[in-house]
Amino acid sequence: MTVINIQRGCLLLSTIISLAIFFAGSITSTQAKTRLPVHLKELLASDSAPHDNYGIVVALSSDTAVIGAPFDSTRSFNAGSAYVYKHSNGAWSLQQKLQANDGAPGDQYGWSIALQGNTLLIGARFDDDRGFNSGSIYAYTRIDNTWVERQKFSAPDGSVNDQYGFTISLDGDVAFIGAPLDDDNGFESGSVYIYHRIAGLWSVEKKFTAHDGEPGDQFGWSVALSASSALIGARFDDDEAFNSGSAYLYNRTAQTWHMKQKFTAIDAAVNDQFGWTVALDDNTAVIGARFNDDMGINSGSAYVYTLSDKEWSLQQKLIASDGEPGNQYSWAIALDGDKLIIGAPFDNYEEAISGSSYVYSRSDNAWREQQKLTANIEVLAARYGISVALEGDTTLIGACLEQHGGVLSESVHINTTCAPLIHETTNLLTPD
Questions:
Q1: Which H or E run contains 224?
Q2: Which of 14, 91, 231, 245 could disulfide-link 275, Cβ–Cβ 3.0 to 4.6 Å?
Q3: Half-sphere exposure at residue 30, Cβ-oriented, CA atoms within 13 angstroms
Q4: How do residues 182-191 score in pLDDT, each as one tens digit?
Q5: Residues 388 and 394 sit within 8 Å (Cβ to Cβ)
Q6: In whole angstroms, what is the distance from residue 36 CA to residue 229 CA?
Q7: Domain spans of the chain, in order of start
Q8: What CATH number does the domain located at 10-426 have?
């Protein structure tokens, strides 16, 4: 199982109510109009400051959650950090705060995170080891409840502004690392590096560029890895229309990766940015188009593809039945088996741009909305759903900016499903 949560920072400006079965026409749910009971409590880092962007990226694996704060300035201005929480005896608590031991101003360590078991990879997209803003990755292993840095690596051919480490996906001893502004196929055409871990150390195995890549495509903007398959988004690909977007599927056979299929939206339009987010789990792929206009300009949508008889085909297109212009539904996506959560951080809920997340389950080959999650009604939350993670019955939702007593802070919510349609949220607190 692979859970992918792809997040694009609050500063870029750049899940449970909706349903549309593409070939059978639109089927929507009136449940979107009702806010189902959600007991939201929040995780606030006690040492976070406004604009740390704590919660801009989240990751979840078993009893561990990791929260990125890429603009944390504790070490130096915007050097970044990441907070590791562990669930034990019914409660979540801070296990460790991580920072790059060589962190420098502007590195943005914590911009991307991949977590699986006792392995953690953290990206610093603006690290300068291979040139200004070339990017790097820090690899950690958990030993006796302590996360230990094992390795720092960067692209062997890295260069200025590649932003290697912009995205990461991890499955076992394989990692895919995106550098969407790499220039191999032209300015900002993008690339992805495959790494393999042997005897505890990561080494580069191969570099991908799109076979038809062109300047500005930004191949590698999003990545998802599941077993022997990988999905890579190119949000600005122009195959169907200007910046309509695409995604490339790769398969591994006999230790060799090769491209299987290229996806574009069947109803693609200018600037949809199909491929902004991608998620992959076994025989299901989900691709987000945050600027699709089905419910108004930039309302957003997501496309679900499934594998059958060795061929991938569109299963369903999802849109928010209560979607409105500017919601950017599918900004973030997480997939785990027959469960799916989609973030819409610009949803105008309760007359405030508070954001929301839509939760789906699949039965009889159809995805159905189960619940719409929103932030605590007493608190004005901004961009709730900017990041999402999902594993089993636990959902982790980031809110990049939240207002408390007139002060903006950052927060993360954890929702644990106790029963169908009921979500209980556990409060995580960083100890003082």
A1: strand 219-226
A2: 245
A3: 0
A4: 999 999 999 9
A5: no
A6: 36
A7: 10-426
A8: 2.130.10.130
